[in-house]
Amino acid sequence: MHNRCPWAGNDPLYQHYHDHEWGVPQLDDNRLFELLILEGAQAGLSWITILRKRENYRAALDGFDPKKIAQYDGDKLAELMQNAGIVRNRLKIQSLALNAQGFLAIQQEFGSFAKFIWSFVGNQPIQNHWQSLDQVPARTPESDALSLALKKRGFKFIGTTICYAFMQATGMVNDHVDGCFRHDECAAQSATIAAYDLVND
């Protein structure tokens, strides 16, 4: 029986996400883009709601392919608005193509999206030590800076609280509480960042 962060609750899907994905330092651009899209979809909703719709999103959004999503036109957006398997919020759906275009532009400029976002934490995961969920912030100066930078590049649904949730999910910060079995495991994986050349081509 593992001690988990309390937010994982008793839902097997939530527990699996907590145990295998949340807080793992993520360097793969495709995975980063997927989580960016899902975090934006989550705005105003619970994360478990989005997790349950994740496969529906994958099917509806061409496997989260940013090059395809960047080309979405009015007909595609209208189709998505009829898809009951995803969150049918017009503004969120309209943001998909904009965010995909911004993502591709960052890849072009920096070589990878990972290089761009990891620079906001000095190319190394921030290791926090919280005793309880009450101590975990909803935003930080780093998430403020990331949000501002992405907004300047045309991204939508990318406020600082969304950015911080994204940073938590992708292991840019280790916010597993002390006592959770995943805290030390995710901390150990920070070595993967040091071995990955985020600074030079």
What does this 3D model show about the protein?
This protein has 201 residues and is mainly alpha-helical. It is 55% helix and 2% strand. It has one domain (12-195): Hypothetical protein, domain 2 (Endonuclease III, domain 1, Orthogonal Bundle). It has eleven helices and two strands, in the order H-H-H-H-H-H-H-E-H-H-E-H-H.
CATH topology: Endonuclease III, domain 1
Q: Which strand-content bin applies to the residues?
A: under 5%
Low-confidence stretches: none
**Count of the domains:** 1
Query: What is the CATH domain class?
Result: Mainly Alpha
Say which CATH homologous superfamily is assigned.
Hypothetical protein, domain 2
Distance between the termini: 43 Å
Q: Total strand count, please?
A: 2
Query: What's the quaternary structure here?
Result: single chain
Mean pLDDT: 94
Inertia-based shape:
globular
Strand order of the largest sheet: 1-2
Count of alpha/pi helices = 11
Please tell me how large the radius of gyration is: 17 Å
CATH architecture: Orthogonal Bundle
The helicity comes to 55-70%
**H-E string:** HHHHHHHEHHEHH
What characterizes the major β-sheet?
A: 2 strands, parallel
Category from helices, strands and their pairing? mainly alpha
